[in-house]
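Our working data are protein records whose layout never changes between entries. Instead of coordinates, the fold is spelled out as a row of discrete tokens. Here is such a record, shown just as it appears in the course material:
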Amino acid sequence: MNRFKRILYVNEPQAPQQAALARAFSLAHNNQAGLTLLDVIPDMSAGIGMPAGGPLPGELMDRLASARRAELEALAAPHAGGAEVALEVRTGKRFLEVIRAVLREGYDLVIKPAEDPSWIDRLFGSDDMHLLRKSPAPVWLMHKAEKSNYGAILAAVGGAPGDCQPQEQALNRRIAELASSLALSDFAALHLAHAWDAPETMLSPWASRPDEMERELEQAARGRHHALMDQVSRGLQERLGRETWDYLRPKIHLVRGAPSHEIPRLARDLDVDLVVMGSVARTGIAGLFIGNTAETILDQLQCSVLAIKPEGFVSPVALDG
């Protein structure tokens, strides 16, 4: 199944990107999708850092744009192999221009090498976090040690049947489907994971059998989360078909603990190359995360990440702004 029709690759000169480029071209070829390579030049103000008698800002920007376009052509040359690829150079803030390109052209996937700032021990830099928070299209941030073929992929699903809204159920389905599709194409192991934490209860010290009540509440919570994983895995099996499901044999992980801690730990323990997860936001409230769980998870991962927004997500970035 062709899952993507228009793919946007964002140039990141400060990071290794040959493996990321190779995957972008391969994904475009396998999906028969259009591919655009985008670079963004920071806007320059007249008189700031300009030597006397130097080129005017407009002339300088034209020269820079031509140079950047030549760089994009050089990057694309080893991978093109006859495939059509568009090259685009824009001026402004990188993350804003990327999101505006998504809004304007309808890209359904953004691929970008993750920034690797040396002054903080974090995978994701500021542009990356802006894209993860605000891009309406899925964002695939690729680690500097990106592999040509993944060995293991982790699909992290959220919620619980009693609390899951249709929007979140649809997001879980999409996470599982994308992760399984990529696992099949890379012959990678697939892991379906869900972390849950039993709600804190305030039982009266005078209640009869408080310890037993506590255990019953915990068992009920565990049962709800088991039901969620059964729902996700059964739905995926139906969509894949029994033969493909048996070939893929996804491993199910239901772990107790805060998702913000357990998902990164599981990714490390399983040595996964990619985590597919949702960036959860309320419909109609531009760019708002429900809590900071998704962002906390993202901030701890040391592998590539494919982050997906729920249906109906509204970006806070305006097309004309």
About this structure: The chain has two domains: 1-146, 149-278. DSSP finds nine helices and ten strands in the chain. The chain has a mean pLDDT of 82. Residues 205 and 211 are 10 Å apart (CA to CA).
